[in-house]
Structure formats: C-alpha cells, structure tokens
Design a protein that fits this description.
The chain is an alpha/beta fold. The protein is built from six helices and nine strands, in the order ααβαβαββαβββαββ.
Length: 219
C-alpha cells in the first residue's frame, strides 16, 4: 500500500522547497567523488544492457544525476518530492523530464522501468515506510532491472533532525542505516543482491557512504 500523504512526506517537501535554491548553489555539479560517478556509470550500463526502458532517478533534486545518466545514453527521468526542486531541474536541464512524486507511491505502471536509482534519498524515509518504497521498486521494475541505492551509513543506526539549514527554518529528518539493515529490507521486497560497496568519508564528509546494487530477479 502506498502512503503518498504521509506526514514525513509533507515535512520533507516543505523543507526542500525552502532550501532548494541554496542547495543547488551549494552542490552545483552533483556527484564529485570519482568512485560515485563510476558506480553510476556501471548502473547505466546495466540498465541499458537489455533494452531502452525508462529509468527513474528517485530523489533527483536539481537533476544532475539524471543528466549524467542521459549523457550515458540512458532514457532517464527524475522524480522528486519537492516542486521547487523539480522546477529548478527543469530549468537547468530543459531537455529532460522531471516530475513531482514520491518513492513510496510511484505514479507508474507495473513492470515498466529499466532501472531505479536512489542516491541519498532513502535517508529521509522513516524505517516503517521504507518497505513500502522497496515494494514500489519491485512493482515498477522490469524483471532483471537494476536498483542502485546510496546513503550515509555507519556501524550503528541513527537519526538526525534538522530545524535549520542554509538559514531557513525546516523540519527535516535523516535516518542513518547500516548496509545490513537496508539489505534485509531489499531482500524482503524480493529484490536480489548484485554488489555492496562501502566508501570511507572523504574531505568534509562525516559518515561512510554505502552503495547497494540490487535487481529484480529475472524471469
């Protein structure tokens, strides 16, 4: 069951609407670490290996990663909970498609996606709603299609609530999970593992970055 009206979605939407322009200025190019870009490139190759089905970038923000996928020949489109973020993405990347939506209630038909990318977006989904999101992944993916998740991680789970960012009043929650926690939920959603990578913090980062590559089982 989807939960498109859940309270956490309303607060996340309002928070990113408030900080969207400052966020885009602070992160003008998207992924900066070479390893992160390499993993997205590998995902792109997997997503297009067996066809040209559309690929969803969930939590697309200003649209940088959607554009990176497009540059690799992937028919990608972006989905974000924040209308302001979607407007910025459309302005910055006018040739690409972006729309407002949520990963817990994807407005997409069953078995139509060639892949799902969710970079640093599941961190705003509470534990009790994450199974709904992963069930939506399974529902909308074609058999054999890949999923790439990334998130700030660590050896223990945690939670952070921010009431201010970039000088704006917000109400934004972050949920830190271990790779094993998230892997268990992906497996429970009938998705199967392909690869796991944990990158240590770099520069101003404070937590390790986890990357989980999964797929919907082939027929």
């Amino acid at each position: 069951m989807s939960d498109s009206s859940a309270d956490f979605l309303q607060t996340t939407r309002a928070s990113y609407d408030a900080i969207a322009k400052d966020y885009a200025t602070r992160f003008p190019t998207g992924l900066t670490h070479p390893l992160d870009r390499t993993l997205v490139t590998a995902f792109a190759d997997l997503a297009t290996a067996n066809g040209r089905a559309p690929v969803a970038d969930l939590g697309s923000g200003p649209g940088h990663v959607t554009a990176l996928l497009h540059g690799r020949g992937v028919p990608a489109f972006g989905v974000d909970v924040s209308p302001t973020m979607v407007a910025l993405a459309r302005e910055t990347h006018p040739g690409l498609r972006f729309h407002v939506g949520t990963m817990t209630s994807l407005d997409l038909p069953d078995a139509t996606l060639g892949g799902i990318l969710a970079l640093y977006s599941t961190i705003h989904v509470p534990d009790d709603h994450l199974p709904t999101a992963f069930a939506e992944f399974h529902r909308t993916l074609l058999p054999g299609a890949p999923v790439l998740l990334s998130f700030q991680s660590g050896t223990e789970p945690g939670h952070l609530h921010l009431s201010e960012r970039f000088g704006h009043e917000i109400a934004l929650d972050y949920y830190w999970r271990t790779p094993d926690q998230t892997k268990a939920l992906l497996t429970a959603a009938s998705l199967e593992p392909v690869a796991t990578l944990l990158r240590e913090p770099q520069d101003t980062e404070t937590r390790p970055r986890a990357f989980l590559l999964y797929r919907k089982p082939p027929p």
